[in-house]
Design brief:
The complex is a heterodimer of chains A (555) and B (187). Chain A has 16 helices and four strands. With 555 residues, chain A is an all-alpha fold. In chain A, strands 1-2 form a two-stranded antiparallel ribbon. A two-stranded antiparallel ribbon of chain A has the order 3-4. In chain A, helix 2 runs parallel beside helix 12, helix 10 packs parallel to helix 14 and helix 14 packs antiparallel against helix 16. By secondary structure, chain B is mainly α. Chain B has one domain: Cytochrome c oxidase, subunit III, four-helix bundle (Four Helix Bundle (Hemerythrin (Met), subunit A), Up-down Bundle). In chain B, 77% of the residues lie in helices and 0% in strands. Chain B has five helices and no strands. Chain B is elongated and about 50 Å long. The chains are: A mainly alpha (555), B mainly alpha (187). The interface between A and B is large, with 57 and 39 residues. The complex binds copper (II) ion. Copper (II) ion (CU) binds next to helix 6 of chain A.
Chain lengths: 555, 187
């Protein structure tokens, strides 16, 4: 792909370990180069995204007409696998992919702290993913991505494979979290003080802390579910003194923080993109970084908002309601800081910026519907309806996926060394934006009118709105095509990109595109903040050091 | 073309700091896992001493592990002073105490007043002790590797990270057991 790429093969206890990629074949090996691993993440998770999207279109096909066309089992396992793929195999690992590619470059390091562990984290993803998908073919699980017992204690063997798959994926994200934390804590270039750390790195710190504290709890719960399914032990079986509500507590103790594991890195990516395309310093750097940490902490105390109608202690709903509403404060801090960043800037509406602005608008809608859902009386009215489906897709698609697309365009020239096609990028954005809103905006109305989620049939009066949503869904599906064609054709034959096409100040742009195997020719020395646009400094935020300056101080 | 000739830029972190930080982060995640099982125990069993397990046997198991933490700490102190022979001797002692604990746990499993599938008592007791026992087994294997490397003289007063990591892990697993003994046998 580039003149700079080369491969190192070293002998080790584990046999041959590759570092760096010289040909496409190297991307199918156990490779320890974080940039190769990042690309492995992008390609793998995007493939899972396409699979999950096809399943979503089957769901929208079923919902074109009120009566059920598929069998209930087929429909139930469709949304089970759709949700599981999108969450565990697309959004969470795709964010980790950006963490892999960008964090070492942004902090001026040559790789992650543990390259071998990093490769292990990646290879666990296809293994876990195929385990879950295999379950679809050998005995379909029906219990949704939330796997509530007693439904998840029913016979289909696909449920067992689902549990094993999610344990594997959780392990991957846990290992990744430790790797990110150690890397960011200890491998920053000289001069890269915490106050100069790019906001995406701050987002990865808070995300990794959440994964570190939350994932083991999910793993413990999954192991209990597995023991109950396979050995007949009793944790969730009411007849033997077990408690199915306990699963919900443990599951949401992980899965509410997981919402932030899915969106905080996206917020970090958007925080990188907005100042570059506004040519302004980021507004409220400290507030954005601190609000990530605040979200990470408060996010652990609000899981009960998923259980308002589950029969939990009624008075407990009040603190969970208030806590959930309080999270809107640090989130609002971010949104206003982003608005302050673009305010009065020289806005350049390139594709990454379009998607970043799309994120800003769509995530705000999802955040606001989240506040309404946190309110107990509203939640009781719309629980398990399409209102919840609308909300979560505004947060996860309008939020996370828009941010991922923005980042894929933003760093495309860095990753591939070539430019994508701007016109097709814009077409992709508008198709995506219109398709997304056509699909999910009407669902708010469906939910308020009482259409239940996760059911193949529905009342005839909902047909017109469902057909609008389905047309939007198909449009959304088609919108992936211009992206795919653009990405593949540009990667192969696009015009060569310069090293820093966006004139960005963060470190990853101060090396070649794509970067050499060890990222930087000499260790960069950081002399300015990452967003000092238009404040009268050198064109880049770093000064290339003399050889002597590269020698680290002894400790 | 250029990458071959350029000296790679490396921001090499302090290895000792890096290893210790990683191990502590690992302990954080393990604490969350073991801790969530303690909450499960209180949720399903309720407060108070309800399982009626053999407290004396539990105390024996606890004593064995606490003793092994002592021998482990002594082994680490000895290699710090460069005493390789003493180090190997005390690692072997720790290893034997670890095996003794596993045998005791096996005895306890065979004589518990309930089986693993008997209600929430069996489920909680066997899962918690099983999860902990698996970690002890991991520690025993770790100790065995450290023992072999010690016999080959791989550790010195200046460089014995493997032994140190093993000791930290072993103490961590012991502390977990102290809490498990309290919530399973005493409370
Ligand atoms: Cu939540």
């Amino acid at each position: 792909m580039s003149d700079n790429a080369h491969t190192e093969t070293t002998h080790s206890a584990a046999g041959f370990v590759r570092h760096g990629a010289a040909s496409w074949r190297d991307y199918f090996t156990f490779n320890t180069d974080h940039k190769v691993i990042g690309i492995q993440y992008f390609v793998t998770t995007f493939t899972f995204f396409l699979v999950g999207g096809l399943l979503a279109m089957l769901i929208r096909y079923e919902l074109l007409t009120p009566p059920a066309e598929f069998s209930t089992t087929t429909y139930n396992s469709l949304f089970t696998i759709h949700g599981s793929i999108m969450i565990f195999l697309w959004v969470i690992p795709a964010m980790a992919g950006f963490g892999n590619y960008l964090v070492p470059l942004m902090i001026g390091a040559d790789d992650m702290a543990y390259p071998r562990l990093n490769a292990t984290s990646f290879w666990l993803i296809p293994i876990g993913g195929l385990t879950i998908i295999a379950g679809y073919f050998v005995g379909q699980s029906n219990s949704g991505w939330t796997a509530y017992p007693p439904l998840s204690l029913q016979p289909p063997v696909g449920q067992t494979l689902w549990i094993v798959g999610v344990i594997i994926l959780g392990t991957s994200s846990l290992l990744g979290a430790i790797n990110f934390l150690v890397t960011i804590a200890l491998m920053r270039a000289p001069g890269l003080t915490p106050g100069r750390l790019p906001l995406f790195c701050w987002a990865m710190v808070s995300t990794s802390l959440m994964a570190l504290f939350a994932t083991p709890v999910l793993t413990a719960a999954l192991i209990m579910l597995l023991l109950e399914r396979l050995l007949g032990m009793n944790f969730f079986n009411v007849n033997e003194g077990g408690d199915p509500l306990m699963w919900q507590h443990l599951f949401w103790f992980y899965s509410h923080p997981a919402v932030y594991i899915m969106v905080l890195p996206g917020m970090g990516l958007v925080s990188e993109i907005l100042p570059v395309f506004s040519r302004k310093p980021v507004f409220g750097y400290k507030a954005i970084a601190a609000s990530s940490m605040a979200i990470a902490i408060i996010g652990f105390a609000v899981w009960g908002h998923h259980m308002f109608t589950s029969g939990m202690n009624p008075w407990l709903r009040i603190p969970f309601m208030l806590g959930s509403m309080v999270i809107a404060v640090p989130t609002g801090v971010k949104i206003f800081n982003w608005l302050g960043t673009i305010w009065g800037g020289k806005i350049d509406l390139k594709t990454p910026m379009l998607f970043a602005l799309g994120f800003l608008g769509m995530f705000t809608i999802g955040g606001l519907s989240g506040v309404t859902l946190a309110s107990v009386p509203v939640d009781i009215h719309v629980t398990d309806t399409y209102y919840v489906v609308a909300h979560l897709h505004y947060v996860l698609f309008g939020g996370s996926v828009f941010a991922l697309y923005a980042a894929l365009y933003m760093w495309f020239p860095k990753i591939t060394g070539r430019m994508y096609n701007e016109a097709w990028g814009k077409i992709h954005f508008w198709l995506n934006f219109v398709g997304f809103n056509l699909t999910f905006l009407p669902m708010h109305w469906l939910g308020l009118q009482g259409m239940p989620r996760r059911v193949a049939e529905y009342a005839p009066q909902f047909q017109t709105v469902n057909q609008i949503a389905s047309i939007g869904g198909f449009l959304l599906g088609i919108s992936a095509l211009p992206f795919l064609v653009n990405a593949l054709v540009s990667w192969a034959r696009g015009p060569k990109a310069v090293d820093n096409p966006w004139r960005s100040l963060t470190l990853e742009w101060q090396t070649t595109s794509p970067p050499p195997v060890h990222n930087f020719a000499v260790t960069p020395v950081v002399t300015h903040g990452p967003y000092d646009y238009g404040v009268g400094i050198a064109p880049t935020g770093v000064a290339a050091p003399a050889a002597a300056a590269a020698a680290p101080a002894g400790d | 073309m250029t990458a071959h000739t350029l000296a790679p830029a490396r921001t090499a972190p302090d290895e000792g700091l890096k290893r210790r930080l990683s191990l502590w982060l690992f302990f954080v995640s393990e604490t969350m896992m073991f801790g969530s099982l303690i909450l499960v125990r209180f949720h399903l069993w309720g407060p108070g001493r309800v399982a009626h397990l053999d407290q004396v046997l539990g105390l024996d198991l606890t004593t064995i592990l606490l003793l092994s933490s002592g021998t482990m700490a002594h082994a680490e102190a000895l290699i710090g002073k460069g005493d390789r022979k003493g180090f190997v001797r005390y690692i072997a002692a720790t290893l034997i105490l670890g095996l003794l604990f596993l045998v005791g746990l096996g005895y306890e499993w065979a004589h518990a007043p309930f089986g693993p599938t008997q209600g929430v008592f069996g489920a909680v007791f066997f899962t918690m002790t099983g999860m902990h026992g698996a970690h002890v087994l991991g520690g025993v294997i770790f100790l065995f590797i450290v023992l072999l490397r010690g016999l080959r003289g791989r550790y010195s007063a200046e460089s014995h990270w493997g032994a140190e990591a093993c000791a930290m892990y072993w103490h961590f697993v012991d502390v977990v057991w102290v809490f498990y003994y309290m919530v399973l046998y005493l409370l």
